[in-house]
């Protein structure tokens, strides 16, 4: 809950396949310990997950260069997500868009109280989430994955105010993440902004997954 008290809930390959079979139209795989551990995303695990899916597949965590991103696409991902590395060096977004195309570039934004945090929510970067989303789009992002840390894991519903603010500031798709507990919460988010809604798990690395 709120990026804390993470717990193992199963194998990412099996969970990914189960979500695909259950009717999800896209999977987002976030290796949240890649940045904290200063290591690349688990490419071999990405290959195993991609082999089991029949739906688009976004991978994030540990992407620090266009070469990192290209390796993930070669492993089977359809899109790559960037977060902390893009905050540290916003030019990375443009480099990825020029190499891979904007349609393959997802900028992930973790926000608490409307302010952006990096490194799996552990560091404040002093930026407004809506303004950062707008800049990310201008630099070439094709999608925004917006996670409300305040709502994350609570199952009490999305942060509708934050979601509406970000979705209203950009023209690219916005994926709402954090707080979903039932189908009504997803309908609420869709009612206020034309966004996608994310319900699922994020990987801790080495095959452990945790609820999001």
Report on this model:
This protein has nine helices and eleven strands. The protein is an alpha/beta fold and 212 residues long. The chain has one domain (12-205): Aldolase class I (TIM Barrel). Strands 1, 2, 3, 4, 5, 6, 7, 8 and 9 form a nine-stranded mixed sheet that branches. The chain has a two-stranded antiparallel sheet with strand order 10-11. The protein is globular, with a radius of gyration of 15 Å. The model is unreliable at 201-212 (pLDDT under 50).
Classified in CATH, the superfamily is: Aldolase class I
Instruction: Report the C-alpha radius of gyration, rounded.
Output: 15 Å
Mind telling me the CATH class?
Alpha Beta
The helix content is 25-40%
How are helices and strands ordered from N to C? Answer: HEHHEHEHHEEEHEHEHEEE
Helical region count? 9
Provide the β-strand percentage band: 15-25%
**Main beta-sheet strand count, sense and barrel state:** 9 strands, mixed
Low-pLDDT residue intervals, each spanning 5 or more residues: 201-212
Distance between the termini: 8 Å
Q: What is the subunit arrangement here?
A: single chain
Could you write a compact summary of the structure shown?
By secondary structure, the chain is an alpha/beta fold.
Please supply descriptive tags for the structure shown above.
TIM Barrel; 212 residues; nine-stranded mixed sheet; disordered C terminus; two-stranded antiparallel ribbon; 11 strands; 9 helices; alpha/beta
List the helices and strands and how they pair.
Layout: H1 12-22, E1 27-30, H2 33-36, H3 43-52, E2 57-60, H4 66-75, E3 79-82, H5 84-88, H6 91-100, E4 105-112, E5 115-118, E6 123-128, H7 129-139, E7 143-148, H8 160-169, E8 174-177, H9 183-192, E9 196-198, E10 201-205, E11 208-211
Parallel strand pairs: 1-2, 2-3, 3-4, 4-7, 7-8, 8-9
Antiparallel strand pairs: 4-5, 5-6, 10-11
């Amino acid at each position: 809950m709120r990026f804390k008290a993470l717990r193992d809930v199963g194998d990412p390959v099996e969970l990914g396949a189960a979500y695909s079979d259950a009717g999800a139209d896209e999977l987002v795989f976030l290796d949240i310990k890649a940045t904290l551990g200063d290591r690349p995303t688990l490419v071999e695990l990405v290959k195993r997950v991609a082999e089991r899916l029949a739906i688009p597949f976004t991978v994030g965590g540990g992407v620090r260069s266009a070469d990192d991103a290209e390796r993930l696409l070669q492993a089977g991902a359809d899109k790559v997500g960037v977060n902390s590395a893009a905050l540290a060096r916003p030019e990375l977004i443009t480099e990825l868009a020029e190499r891979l195309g904007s349609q393959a570039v997802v900028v992930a934004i973790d926000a608490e109280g409307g302010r952006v945090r990096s490194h799996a929510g552990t560091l404040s970067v002093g930026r407004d989430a809506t303004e950062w989303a707008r800049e990310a789009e201008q630099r070439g992002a094709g999608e925004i994955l917006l996670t409300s840390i305040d709502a994350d894991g609570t199952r009490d519903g999305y942060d509708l105010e934050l979601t509406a603010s970000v979705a209203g500031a950009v023209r690219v798709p916005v994926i709402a993440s954090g707080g979903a507990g039932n189908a009504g919460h997803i309908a609420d988010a869709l009612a206020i902004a034309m966004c996608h809604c994310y319900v699922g798990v994020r990987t801790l690395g080495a095959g452990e997954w945790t609820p999001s």
